[in-house]
């Protein structure tokens, strides 16, 4: 694991509709790691990710990504972001979606086949996205994000709704991308997925409860059950025994 930080956040505040969504976050994500952003729905995970890729209006703080301010033009070809819904065109095939993005990015034709193979969609490349399952649609969006071999991948709930086999395969892909030099920030509300990450950031109600590892969380809370460990961490923050 590299000691260099791919992401540095200092004092990040986001307010929407008069409500504080993120309240002065400080955190780092080490380069060359798979880092899990863990927390329940509504904890601020998506808002944080949007701030990291430069599409979220912030009320204060600093966000540095790969040595540049978040959203800087220099980062456009180095950072890829996949939203929960996935940005795909339902009337195009899987291959047509990826090929369209490849032309925008000026990626070679070989890149299209490479990324479709990475997400195991070659057998479905000629099917309209509208006829694919929800999990397959998310993999089309992921394939598009992998074009050009970005240095940082920001993935918002990429495994939600997938069956256990597909989840396992995707996490295997994340590990291979890390081993090839990429940094991944992967959000999830499934605590068991923390065990697949090199590091975890635990978020609740816009606050960072901890930056640790799955093993560190188990050790610190005295339980092997990661769901229970998260509950104990919350209770400790609230001053409950």
Describe the structure.
The protein is α/β, with parallel strands linked by helices and 241 residues long. The chain has a domain at 88-149. Helix content is 33%, strand content 27%. The chain has seven helices and ten strands. The strands form two sheets. Strands 6-7-8-3-9-10 form a six-stranded mixed sheet, with helices on both faces. A four-stranded antiparallel sheet has the order 2-1-4-5, covered by helices on one side. Helix 6 crosses helix 7. The longest helix is centred in the C-terminal third of the chain and has 16 residues, at 164-179. The mean pLDDT is 91.
Order of helices and strands: EEEHEEEHHHEHEEEHH
**In DSSP terms, counting alpha (H) and pi (I) runs of 4 or more, how many helices?**
7
Overall geometry comes to globular
Low-confidence stretches: none
Distance between the termini: 35 Å
Largest sheet: 6 strands, mixed
Alpha-beta classification: alpha/beta
- Mean pLDDT metric: 91
Radius of gyration: 18 Å
Placed side by side, the strands forming the largest sheet appear as 6-7-8-3-9-10
Key phrases:
241 residues; alpha/beta; 6-stranded mixed beta sheet; 4-stranded antiparallel beta sheet; 7 helices; 10 strands
């Amino acid at each position: 694991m590299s000691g260099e930080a791919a992401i540095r956040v200092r004092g990040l505040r986001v307010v929407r509709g008069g409500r504080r969504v993120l309240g002065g976050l400080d955190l780092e994500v080490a380069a060359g790691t798979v880092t899990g952003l863990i927390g329940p729905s509504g904890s601020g995970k998506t808002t944080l990710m949007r701030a990291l890729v430069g599409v979220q209006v912030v009320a204060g703080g600093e966000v540095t990504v790969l040595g540049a301010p978040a959203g800087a033009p220099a980062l456009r070809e180095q950072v890829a972001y996949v939203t929960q819904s996935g940005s795909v065109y339902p009337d195009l095939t899987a291959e047509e979606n990826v090929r369209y993005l490849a032309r925008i990015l000026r990626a070679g034709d070989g890149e299209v086949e490479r990324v479709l193979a990475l997400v195991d969609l070659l057998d479905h490349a000629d099917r309209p996205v509208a006829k694919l399952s929800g999990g397959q649609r998310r993999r089309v969006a992921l394939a598009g994000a992998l074009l050009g071999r970005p240095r940082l991948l920001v993935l918002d709930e990429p495994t939600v709704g997938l069956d256990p086999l597909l989840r396992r395969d995707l996490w295997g892909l994340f590990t291979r991308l890390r081993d090839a030099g990429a940094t991944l920030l992967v959000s999830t509300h499934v605590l068991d997925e923390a065990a697949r990450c090199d590091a975890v950031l635990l978020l609740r109600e816009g606050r960072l409860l901890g930056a640790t590892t799955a093993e560190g969380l188990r050790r610190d809370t005295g339980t092997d059950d990661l769901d229970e460990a998260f509950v104990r961490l919350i209770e400790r923050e609230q001053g409950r025994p």
